[in-house]
Design a protein that fits this description.
Strand order of the largest sheet: 1-4-7-5-8-9-10-11
Distance between the termini: 70 Å
Number of helices: 9
Shape: globular
Oligomer: single chain
Low-confidence stretches: 1-17
Helix content: 25-40%
Strand content: 15-25%
Structural class: alpha/beta
Largest sheet: 8 strands, mixed
CATH topology: Rossmann fold
Length: 299
């Protein structure tokens, strides 16, 4: 019996040593839920390095999907929840709490996802994490105090691409209730500025045709959820036409969509508490969400 226990312990230790070390950070989340990692998920991003955190909030070498959930005060809950995908050129996941704090103040449950980066082409794992987070929020709606029909998605930069990807990749009856894309990189074609992000997403040998396959203007249908797009005119990281072309595709298919272009702010405005258009963009989000999440009128 002792020999069997010893062998089981040895096997467990070997598996533990082979697994990549993961990281979690303290940013005031009410709960942190691990959805899965490379050993338990359907897909793997084949990351072999241990996770690391740079500048306190940038996750590199991600090999597990962790959902950081933030609850509003019970007295002002709206039932609305937003899964937030951070940016990072699909190389890392960079957290920011600015929008999360706004969500809490406005009665919205926010859930920021640390997703598995594609690791040079293993993007099925990334999409699995992103869609899995939406399904987790719905499946746990009662416990979380949210309305399962009001689970939306949001993202910035690469996270904006991921939010739009989720909006189009999920089955029509499972799609998010809405999407909000902040300086999103929805285009992956030859005009895309930072081609290194394309290599992160689809591998170093990605062809123009392969990049075009994840240019999300090509995936929009009439069933893509209502979408709000926010960007800056002077964004030199993700050019404005990435958003304007996606907006055009939405309108072409009759999808309810709204777009705001601010004259300055560059690329990282959404986490800038001192940005001159801060009140305008958060006001635009609130006005649009109020419309999208109000009870539907009976026809």
């Amino acid at each position: 019996m002792k020999k069997i226990i010893f062998l089981m312990t040895l096997v467990a230790s070997t598996l533990s040593a082979a697994a990549q070390a993961t990281k979690q950070i303290d940013i005031g989340a009410d709960e942190i839920v691990t959805l899965w990692d490379n050993s338990t998920a359907k897909y793997s991003n084949h990351m072999e390095k241990d996770e690391k955190v740079v500048a306190k909030r940038k996750f590199y070498n991600t090999s597990s999907a962790d959902l950081y959930i933030f609850h509003p005060k019970s007295e002002n809950r709206t039932g609305v929840s937003i899964v937030i995908y951070p940016g990072g050129s699909y190389r890392y996941a960079g957290f920011s709490t600015h929008f999360i704090n706004w969500c809490k103040e406005n009665g919205i449950t926010a859930a920021m996802l640390k997703y598995r980066v594609p690791n040079s082409g293993h993007n099925q794992a990334t999409l699995e994490d992103a869609t899995g987070a939406v399904e987790y929020m719905r499946a746990n709606a009662e416990r979380l105090g949210i309305d399962p029909t009001k689970v939306g998605v949001a993202g910035c930069s690469a996270g904006g691409h991921l939010a739009a990807w989720v909006s189009n990749a999920m089955a029509d009856d499972r799609k998010p209730a809405f999407a909000m894309l902040f300086c999103g990189s929805m285009l992956r074609d030859a005009y895309y500025v930072t081609m290194s992000a394309n290599m992160n997403l689809m591998g170093k040998d990605v062809t123009p045709a392969e990049a075009e396959s994840l240019t999300l203007t090509n995936l929009v249908t009439k069933n893509t959820p209502p979408t709000l797009i926010l960007l800056c005119h002077d964004d030199n990281v993700v050019r404005p036409f990435s958003s304007t072309k996606y907006y055009t595709a939405l309108k072409r298919h009759g999808v309810p969509a709204s777009m705001h272009i601010y004259p300055s702010g560059g690329h990282s405005w959404w986490s800038n508490r001192k940005w001159e258009y801060r009140n305008q963009w958060l006001g635009a989000v609130k006005d649009w969400l109020d419309i999208q999440t109000q009870p539907k009128q009976q026809k």
